[in-house]
Amino acid sequence: MFENTNLSPLVRIAISVEGGSRGSMFGRGVADLCLGVREKGSLNAAAKDMHMAYSKAWRIMKDTESTLGIRLLDRDGAHGSTLTPEGDALLDSYLEIDRDLNEYALKLFAQKFKA
């Protein structure tokens, strides 16, 4: 159907509080910050990897924690940060849902547009 065979779908998801405002949600950017904390042991290092100021990363995390009512990070000052058990679980769930939705979207796309 399409001549350009390089097309593929991309699904983006966000986790928010049901009925809440459209404020800070747990989406791809927050997930990437959390992954960076998990891998690097520091919000500052995660922010640097994303070419983001630490102050912006800190504000994003605080706003998201406040909006969701979940503490995502344990901060230990100069010793870095780690994900809380809730933060780990939310990140793992987000990544699994994101992967599954994108796999499903690829299958649907192939059925609808490459047939």
Automatic annotation (TrEMBL):
The name this protein goes by in its record: ModE family transcriptional regulator
GO molecular function, one term: DNA-binding transcription factor activity
Pfam family, one: HTH_1
Domain named HTH lysR-type: residues: 37-87
